Amino acid sequence: MEKEEIKQKIYELLEKSKGKKKLKEKDVIKAISEETGVDKDTVKKALREMIDVGKVMYSYSGGASSVEIPSEEYLKEKGLL
Amino acid sequence: MSKKYDTPLLDELEKGPWPSFVKEIKKAAKKSERAADELGQVEKSYKTKRGYWKHGGIVGVLGYGSGVIGRYSSLPEEFPGVAHFHTVRINQPSGWFYTTKALREMCDMWDKYGSGLTNMHGSTGDMILLGTNTESLEPIFAEFSSRGWDLGGSGSAMRTPSCCVGPGRCEWANIDTLDINYALTQEFQDELHRPSFAYKFKIKTAGCAVDCIAAIARADLSIIGTWKGDIKIDQAEVKNYAKNGMDINAEIVDMCPTGCMSYDGKKLKIEDEDCNRCMHCIAKMTKALRPGDERGATLLIGSKAPIVVGAMLSWVVVPFIKLEPPYQELKDLIRKILEWWDENGKARERIGEVIEHKGMRSFLEYVGLPPVPQMIKEPRRDPFFFWAEKDLK
To answer: I need a surface site. Which of B39, B84, B129, B230 has the fewest CB within 10 A?
Structure first.
């Protein structure tokens, strides 16, 4: 599977869980790896690339971290939009 | 800046001989709007008995998931200076050694971008900068990293490893805590900056069992310097201690937790096979007693402060390990430990809690450590053995 397709799958998963469930980085990697059959390291690299360009961001609540799609407002603050 | 708020309740906290955070915030408030509004908001909290801080969310620097903790006021119109009041954690140098030049630079940068208030140091060990806004985060990171600093850990990440001053100042250090800490910080950069665990994971390295850094109570992995073999005794110095007024029986022998010492007024004797290397006698009679020459560390797992379940102390898992650069055995073991925790831990569950419900057997089998009697859960009370079904046949 192409890396861009994996990224698309990650994005879709995060969009689907938005407002419902906070997903840890490992939850995303495990779910996409199981869904696509791609090894976890490759999924992790794809996710990290999305994080590096601000397509996905870490969030923090009650001492625990998760990953999610950032709001447009936040991306504007970061100069990414 | 003139005084912005009356703070009669906070003023009470300036009374008495002890240091006061109010006094420090007031000093900062003379030149910082943020610090001034913080005083106003905290005074209001004391009056109404309510907190007005919101916490968390997506706040950080690009690519990192750690190092910035989002904090907002729920009264931004009333206290605009603290509408955003984010915390920035800076990875401290091993043993907290700074030059005054570095501290001045850091304070200048923080006056420029933040409230000027710092916490030296947070309980994890980082240098903590209190109070800035979202727009300033990237510039702060750029300025700090251009001077060789990096952000520390936060959230579900490896927290910034910390250590005691070790051989930098202390004659009791059995291991090079500073070098071990630096090596682990470099090794686990990804785990530190990109939170992917179930919850936090702390590593603290103490040079000896005096444990000035309280690793045994605060770290998921406590590395505590120790030795193998007999304590070295200089009987002439023992005599000097007695001559100078030390009551060796009361202060040393009777205080030994394992009762492995005796003193007949002439000679101090130690039954080394019964010694648990607590360091009490060595720390009290520095000139007379020294640890043996074969130095290394005891590794303990699972301590934490009380959040999900109560406070826990670390549990010995490796009674003795040699620690020499590049510390590969230690690094490999930590990776195995993290893997097991990752497989078995639920959200917000520390490794000690997972060991409690999954059992030490599951943990030891996975990480490949043989159970040995020295794996003491609570010191001097319950050394344990366990057997697999096959061993009982």
So the answer is: B230
Give, as one character, the DSSP assignment of residue B252.
I
* Tokens (6 digits) for B109: 């940068």
Q: How far apart are CA B197 and CA B342, in angstroms?
A: 6
pLDDT confidence bin for B302, thresholds 50/70/90: very high
The residue with tokens 């702060």 is: B140
Distance from CA of B18 to the nearest CA of A (A): 31
In contact, B171 and B204? CB cutoff 8 Å: no
> ipTM for the complex?
0.89
H helices present in chain B, as ranges: 8-12, 21-29, 33-48, 100-113, 137-146, 177-187, 189-193, 215-218, 235-243, 248, 280-284, 328-344, 351-358, 360-367, 389-392
Residues in chain A whose beta carbon is closer than 8 A to a beta carbon of chain B? 24-26, 48, 51-52, 54, 57-65, 67-68, 70-71, 74, 77-80
**Which chain B residue has its CA at the smallest distance from A47's CA?**
B63
In this predicted model, what pLDDT tens digit does every residue of B326-368 receive, in sequence order?
A: 999 999 999 999 999 999 998 889 999 999 999 999 999 999 9
pLDDT of residue B57: 80
